[in-house]
Amino acid sequence: MREALLEMTEKRLGMTAVVDADDRLVGLITDGDLRRALDRQTDLHAVSASEAMTPDPFTIGPDELAARGLQLMEEKAINGLLVVDGDKRVIGALNMHDFLRAGVI
Amino acid sequence: MREALLEMTEKRLGMTAVVDADDRLVGLITDGDLRRALDRQTDLHAVSASEAMTPDPFTIGPDELAARGLQLMEEKAINGLLVVDGDKRVIGALNMHDFLRAGVI
Questions:
Q1: Chain A to chain B, count of Cβ pairs less than 8 Å apart?
Q2: Which of A51, A97, B25, B98 is the most exposed place for a label (fewest CB within 10 A)?
Q3: For residue A33, what are the contacts with CB-CB under 8 A and spacing of at least 6?
Q4: Residue B59 has what pLDDT?
Q5: Is B7 on the interface with A (CB under 8 A)?
Q6: pLDDT for A65-81, tens place per residue?
């Protein structure tokens, strides 16, 4: 989790993807997941990424419409979405500010 | 910070206001502030709310236009905004999902 925290702060996205040895997406850790992990266990060193992550998170494909991504975020009340290819490899990430900047909303 | 964490999880806003003895707003703790506090100090019990908070956060008045709130969130790249009255007493909170639901964006 220590590494996840630093990654989240460096990339300024408020989330980080968890991938397996083949670089395929297995989970997502958001600031909210981090907070909920702390509610349960105050020692972060004792928490692994897989314990804190949301497994099998909502994603969008690179060729899907941005509007579909926004709809997903609204429906699921989430603030970020990973973009994955057909092999579940993470190729990008979207948040509300990306949609605002792009004029999708 | 332990109390702040629980409050943030209970209210499902990803943030909590810090107020003084007169209930006037002095700061805001978001999930991001929490994460950054953990980057510096892993023992949450040693961190007070005032150490982790963003002092004097951006706010909006109850009679200001919602569009102004959205503009503030875009400009400052923030995901939430507190609504305060003329005495700096917190009367509400807004996030991106509120704006989407209200049809402001």
A1: 64
A2: A51
A3: A52, A53, A54
A4: 97
A5: no
A6: 999 999 999 999 898 99
A89, A25 in Cβ contact below 8 A? yes
The two structure tokens encoding residue A36: 């909920």
B100 at A interface, C-beta within 8 A:
yes
CA distance A38 to A32: 10
B34-91 pLDDT, tens per residue?
888 888 876 777 889 999 999 999 999 999 999 999 999 999 989 899 999 999 999 9
Per DSSP, helices labelled H in B1-105 are 2-11, 31-40, 49-52, 66-76, 96-102
Contact A10/A18 with Cβ under 8 angstroms? Answer: no
How far is residue B62 from each of residues B77, B83, B89, measured CA to CA in Å? 21, 6, 11
Could you tell me if the ipTM is greater than 0.90? Answer: no
